[in-house]
Amino acid sequence: MAASKAAVAKMNAVNGGAGFDPSMWRDFFVVEERMRARAERLAREVRRRIFGAGDGDGEGGVAMSVAEAATLVDTLERLGLDGHFRHEIGVLLGRLRREEADFAGSDDDLHTAALRFRLLRQHGVWVSPDMFDKFRVGTGSFSSSLRDDPRGLLSLYNAAHMAAPREIALDDIIAFARCHLEALSIEGKLKSPLAEQVSRALDIPLPRFPRRLETMNYLAEYEQEDEHNDMLLELARLEFELARSLHLEELKALSLWWRELYESVKLSYARDRLVESYFWTCGVFHEEEYSRARIMFAKVFGLLSLMDDTYDVHATLEECYKLNEAIQRWDEGAISILPEYLRMFYIKLLSNFDELEATLEPHEKFRVSYAKNAFKLSSEYYLREAKWSNTKYTPSFAEHLEVSVMSSGFPMLAPVVLMGVHDDVGVATAAAFEWATAAVPDAVIAASGEVARFLNDIASHRVEKNEKDVPSSVECYMAEHGVGEEAALAAVAAMAEHGWRTINRALMEMDPGLLPAARLVVNLTRTLEVIYLGGRDGYTFGGDIKGLVVSLFLDPVAGIRL
């Protein structure tokens, strides 16, 4: 039916005389571009309203109190927005460092004091634990009234886990806070979202919890806080979804790469765990600017896992010697010395490293040599463990630790974490690679290796042993000290705790220029806490973390507006 004259006149008026209605959809389906544009507008608005500045020239909310400044830094970091506001956060941390606040008479003074302590220590600044003495009564014990401040207790508990070795006062704080938080939780006296945050911290304290997983949880919890900022919440949701969209693209590409690799090398005894390794990777660096680094790290992690399983569960000792010889030579001419079933793996190993090198800029290609040397070093330590296994040798605890910390993967993975990082962010510097591959591993790397080894051995001790498994640190401790299983498990768990405290101290003592690189290694260690939570092994037994994988990559993010 022909349009009426009035309708035609209307269409002409709105459509430049062409006679058609404008599209009702326009760019409705160009979702990612709209989300990104909205996020950029929100970031500018946050900078203007909260920090009182235009793009990049803010001085970090000069009018804020210390409590407000600490809360804002914590909120931005837990929402995953710190990358947007690095300068502003630096200014705020400078204020927290300079100003010793007087919290007397404030209802939330314990919370703010503990939050300030944790934030500064996490950013490499030593703060004396004496600041908590004002919360003690005459006998030296903490005031019983603190039990009525669960938010403050939780902050205190998390802060105390930034302890360095031999800080006995912080041991007392952890025991005190944990006791009361557990009681409040059991009695059902905690409301949401504090109840969920306490439960999470009692499993893994906040300073050791992977940042991406904390953001995933905090997005829902922050909305329930009375003083939440709607702009920050919307920006965080958009940023989370934008990063996740990229993660899914990477996961698809890596899955195709892995499927071709795994099927071509035909090492059916090896773990098929690409998704789990990518989950681990996102715990190290989740931001969009680390896309290349994630892909490179995940690929090398997969190759290392294939080599690890070959030494651990399949190859004869003679084959282990041949594999190590080929790895040390790192040359196609070494293929002939390998048994037939390992030749394709070796070819793929060399070709993948060549491809990784090709993705780097000319001035970045030196990085690959560090990763290769670390891969070779891992092979040497895997061989030493294979010798123990084949000769049924039980090493002393110290001897075991010397080898197994190195075979945990951390000394090898430190330069691999840095290999794909773009150098415009001041992380993957030449000095950082020297630090990551020092002949005597830096305290952060060595202690991370200890945490990895001890958590892995606690988990593996609870499952059926493979006939080729070498004695674990738990078993070596039992044999050397003549103690039972539970006592050995407790001792090894205490050593893992000591490893974390060594990491804390090292981060506060190291060259500030190396801190960005060191934090990436620590992020790798943080993810271990989730992988091995409660004695499980979420990498070997992927079903243990399936729910987390689904939540992180697939479950919808509520509240996104376009």
By CATH reckoning, the class of the largest domain would read Mainly Alpha
Overall outline: globular
Strand content: under 5%
Q: How many separate structural domains?
A: 2
Compute the CA-based radius of gyration. 27 Å
CATH architecture group name of the largest domain: Orthogonal Bundle
Summary, kept brief:
The protein has 562 residues and is an all-alpha fold. Helices cover 63% and strands 0% of the residues. Keywords: Metal-binding.
Structural summary, described in words:
The longest helix is centred in the middle third of the chain and has 36 residues, at 230-265. The model is unreliable at 54-58 and 101-108 (pLDDT under 50). Helix 3 packs antiparallel against helix 4 (86-98), helix 3 (66-78) packs across helix 5 (109-122) and helix 7 (168-186) crosses helix 8 (194-203). The chain has helices at 5-14, 31-49, 66-78, 86-98, 109-122, 150-160, 168-186, 194-203, 211-222, 230-265, 274-284, 291-314, 317-329, 340-358, 366-391, 397-407, 410-419, 430-436, 443-461, 473-481, 485-509, 515-531, 546-553. The chain starts with a helix and ends in a 9-residue tail after the last helix. It is mainly α. Helix content is 63%, strand content 0%. It contains 23 helices and no strands. It folds into two domains: 66-208, Alpha/alpha barrel (Glycosyltransferase); 233-554, Farnesyl Diphosphate Synthase. Residues 260-501 form the Terpene synthase metal-binding domain. It holds the Pfam family Terpene_synth_C. Keywords: Metal-binding. This is Terpene synthase N-terminal domain-containing protein.
